[in-house]
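Lesson 9: reading folded outputs for more than one chain in a single document. The general rule is that every protein is listed as its sequence immediately followed by its structure tokens, and records are never interleaved. Here is the first one.
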Amino acid sequence: MCSLLWSSIVMCVALQLLQLGIVHPSPSHIRITHLPGQPQVQFQQFSGYVNVDDRNHQALFFYFAEAEKDAASKPLVLWLNGGPGCSSLGVGAFSENGPFRPKGEGLVRNQFSWNREANMLYLETPIGVGFSYSSDTSAYEGVNDKITARDNLVFLKNWFIKFPEYRNRSLFIVGESYAGHYVPQLAELMLQFNKKEKLFNLKGIALGNPVLEFATDFNSRAEFFWSHGLISDTTYKVFTSVCNYSRYVREYYNGAVSPVCSSVMSQVSTETSRFVDKYDVTLDVCLSSVFSQTKVLNPQQVTETIDVCVEDETVNYLNRKDVQSALHARLVGVQRWSACSNVLDYELRDLEIPTITVVGNLVLEGIPVLVYSGDQDSVIPLTGSRTLVHKLAKMLGLKTTVPYRVWFEKQQVGGWTQVYGDILSFATIRGASHEAPFSQPERSLVLFKSFLEGRPMPQEF
């Protein structure tokens, strides 16, 4: 029962709204005091919800790790994982480039965490992913790129209300896989919003093994398989002439795979083998399911079982009640947190919308762009990404400012790079998978640092 005093009524109503989930706590209430099993650290962490639709009670969940040192002088980086429908918390933060990784009953430090160089904001998007939710489950149906970009923009606008000290901070957006759609489309909306009200201090975007143009990205898979010895000359020929991969994926999602494509894919699957991980062709297949964000990009019309022989520690950790309590997280409409959403119905035909043109528009607006590729990924191979970046540079009339060359991490070759017009860059990460910061954390951190500083990749060791 509320007191009749006006101040008491206001406080009481605010408390009731908070309990109903209509408003969310201030930053002081979303600070993480200590994650279960967490080693001692000096930086601050926050997590919680930001409403993106008050009327329908839709909220996106975030995890924010401030920089290890000098947080006030470091840029803000928004990280997005792909899928579509996979978690930036579980995949990005706790498995790739965040400050901790689950081990046993606790957490261990990631010595190559990206919050060494930036304040890292991880967003579970769209609604229905991870801890993000809608009180109306019909909102999970027909979600598409346009809806996702709009919600992500609203999230950032409202997040700055909670964290006003970051409003004018240099902002970068980085993501991988299907974030090749999320990131450019969000950046484009931010620039449009800035023309009405200057809010976003966007300084650049980086895209890792991204989906940028359906046919080029997917059809480069055949050459990658063949050049790495995974398929025969005969199979390579039919995979590039009789039925290429983009045609197969299109037929698969239209619900009618032709007999000829079924035959070709059966042969490809037999030769590449279920014992080779398509996201890292040099890695043994013994992988955790948390690294399944590319399952949408790699549909299995041919029955194939995956040998998951590593306990999925991230999934176990994030499903603990004490962990969810420490994160200020809750499960709404689902029984368990999962790395990739089981309730989201995404419009998969959006795969065919090219976002390389959006990337070009960003470059014309003066936004630096880096496209990087783990060179052992066959799902979105480096050859397709390199081709697309080169064509874009040519179309925009950008001259090569850094010729194709190696870059170094310590005393080893870290990968190869090329820069166009000092604004559009391509780089590979040697020995890296689709999730480059997971498989090559130290080399990925070198690339990330160079990107933030606007410098070419290290030419000397």
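And here is the second record, again sequence then tokens.
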Amino acid sequence: MDHEPHTHHHPPASATGTTTWAAAATATLHCLTGCAIGEVLGMVIGTAAGLHNAATVLLSVTLAFVFGYALTMRGVLRAGVDLRTALKVALAADTVSIAVMEVLDNTVIVAVPGAMDAGLGSLLFWGSLAGSLVVAFLLTTPLNRWMISRGRGHAVVHRYHAH
């Protein structure tokens, strides 16, 4: 079953309680998209506004959750569910994944000497930010595989995908 074709929708967990690495990577990439939008936007706004590093990180994390949930809700709402149900699905599907990604990517960018203070025109700033998102993807994918194989995380979204 490790050779399932790649589709836009995440393949569901199998009857044996396992899921493919491709399904996990797809779910993680979906989650990373919202996280990256919020993370980059927060870092750009915070850096451009001269906010303290802690405020910039807080803004980035907040926006990562907002955009991550919004992208999931968009797809679930297309399936015809109400807003409250879509929010519940997004919270169940994405909270753990986004939280782990945010801890990882912010730890990386804060740990790189000078990255947070480098400025928007700096390769150090953008390289650290890009690298932090790669680390978040690589380390969150196994977690998402584990959660999907147990019917958690992105597995809860499957029944709401509009076909």
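What the second record shows: The longest helix spans residues 83-111.
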